[in-house]
TrEMBL record:
PANTHER family given in the database record: ALKYLATED DNA REPAIR PROTEIN ALKB-RELATED, NUCLEIC ACID DIOXYGENASE ALKBH1
Cellular localization per UniProt: Nucleus
Keyword tags: Dioxygenase, DNA damage, DNA repair, Iron, Lyase, Metal-binding, Multifunctional enzyme, Nucleus, Oxidoreductase, RNA repair, Transcription, Transcription regulation, Translation regulation
GO MF annotation, one: class I DNA-(apurinic or apyrimidinic site) endonuclease activity
Name this protein carries in UniProt: Nucleic acid dioxygenase ALKBH1
Domain annotation Fe2OG dioxygenase: ranges: 184-286
Segments of this protein annotated with the region Disordered: 315-356
Signal sequence range: none
Protein EC: 1.14.11.33, 1.14.11.51, 4.2.99.18
Organism: Hippocampus comes (Tiger tail seahorse)
Chief location: nucleus
Substrates-to-products reaction catalysed: a methylated nucleobase within DNA + 2-oxoglutarate + O2 = a nucleobase within DNA + formaldehyde + succinate + CO2; N(1)-methyladenosine(58) in tRNA + 2-oxoglutarate + O2 = adenosine(58) in tRNA + formaldehyde + succinate + CO2; 5-methylcytidine(34) in mitochondrial tRNA(Met) + 2 2-oxoglutarate + 2 O2 = 5-formylcytidine(34) in mitochondrial tRNA(Met) + 2 succinate + 2 CO2 + H2O; an N(1)-methyladenosine in tRNA + 2-oxoglutarate + O2 = an adenosine in tRNA + formaldehyde + succinate + CO2
Length: 356
């Protein structure tokens, strides 16, 4: 056992998690990597994406800059980890924020409030969100597509509702630019963080095909994200995630421990979204958000953070154990052994470490 663990009874990841979560005294943030500052060194390496993989029109359709203008990085020692600093066109983030707050929490999608409220009460969280202290403030998670079961920590064939088309497209373009052709967005977990929320240490391994990347999109307030290794004793690297940033976890990093110990105030970028929205002309998919809707969204993201993670659950031609393979697919991969890491419990409490 490592010396530090003998002393404290805690693994290296947990020590770091507690350090960055600490309020009093606040931690020293000087070691937290800020990719938006664009320094490359021995640890932070630029990643060359294929600008021809996604046409400029396809990128713009989902509100993204041309791929040649994206700035992407990886970290030494984290194979398959890609960090793209805000690839969104000026004015397009408000659309995605509105989807997360107004559209995705609606039925048939599932949210934490459904756990102990009737469907009529959670039917339109948005309509009841004009006043402060509303249901929107109690929203902690939403699931899309194959709905993650927090108790069994599995996805299943019979717990599925259609995955949002526009989010599928956005994910597809990001994955394609990163070299993952044919990415099929099948499940989404959206996390809603208040300024004092955190997300506990975990690995996302419930998906049946780990060769497919996991995508993560952040909006609103910033966060400190910790990325460790395959063991809790591997000391994690801390980095900021700002509004618009996109993370791709693939390869070995796909199964690395990670966590969000702290939400940190955003700088000017969130305030800028208010003016950016007005300049957005709207497009094939990303439409301009109305003034009325933006009042609610803007108030929300001035104090909160939203993160969308998008996952492909099944490999090509794969099916859930005990269900027939999809028609037309001869080969079927064997599902993995079904062991799962500790994740959040089915709860509507804030995303504390204990709930993961
Ligand atoms: O909020 C984040 O940045 C991380 C979310 C996450 O790890 C998850 O939902 O599995
Ligand atoms: Mn995760």
């Amino acid at each position: 056992m490592a010396a530090s663990m003998v002393e404290t009874g805690e693994d290296a990841f947990r020590q770091m998690f507690k350090l960055y979560k600490r309020r009093n005294p606040p931690p020293d943030f000087s070691d937290v990597i800020d990719f938006s500052k664009c320094v490359t060194n021995d640890k932070i390496r630029p990643v060359k994406l294929d600008p021809a993989a996604v046409s400029d029109g396809d990128a713009a359709n989902v509100g993204l800059h041309h791929v040649k203008d994206w700035r992407a990085f990886t970290l030494q020692g984290y194979p398959g980890f890609i960090f793209i600093t805000n690839p969104f066109l000026r004015g397009s983030q408000p659309f995605w924020v509105r989807q997360c707050l107004k559209t995705y929490p609606q039925k048939p999608n599932i949210c934490n409030l459904d756990m102990h409220m009737s469907p009529t009460d959670t039917q339109d969280i948005w309509a009841k969100s004009r006043e402060p202290r509303t249901l929107l403030e109690r929203l902690r998670w939403v699931t899309l597509g194959y709905h993650y079961n927090w108790n069994s920590k599995t996805y299943s064939a019979n717990h599925y509702t259609p995955f949002p088309t526009e989010l599928h497209l956005l994910s597809h373009q990001i994955a394609t630019a990163c070299g993952f052709t044919g990415f099929n967005a099948e499940a989404g977990i959206l996390n809603y963080y208040r300024s004092d929320s955190s997300l506990g240490i975990h690995v996302d391994e419930s998906e049946l095909d780990h060769s497919r990347p996991l995508l993560s999109f952040s909006f609103g307030q910033s966060a400190i994200f910790l990325l460790g290794g395959t063991h809790r004793q591997d000391s994690p690297t801390a980095m900021y995630m700002h509004s618009g940033d996109v993370m791709v976890m693939s390869g070995l990093s796909r199964l690395f421990y990670h966590a969000v110990p702290r939400i940190v105030p955003a700088h000017q970028e969130v305030a800028d979204l208010d003016t950016e929205r007005c300049s957005w002309q709207g497009g094939a998919i990303v439409e301009q958000v109305s003034e009325e809707d933006w009042v609610v969204c803007s108030r929300y993201i001035h104090s909160s953070r939203i993160n969308m993670t998008v996952r492909q659950v099944l490999g090509h031609g794969q099916s859930f154990p005990g269900t027939p393979p999809p028609p037309g697919h001869a080969e079927q991969h064997q599902a993995e052994d079904g062991k799962h890491m500790k994740r959040r419990r089915c709860s509507d409490s804030p995303n504390t470490e204990e709930t993961r």
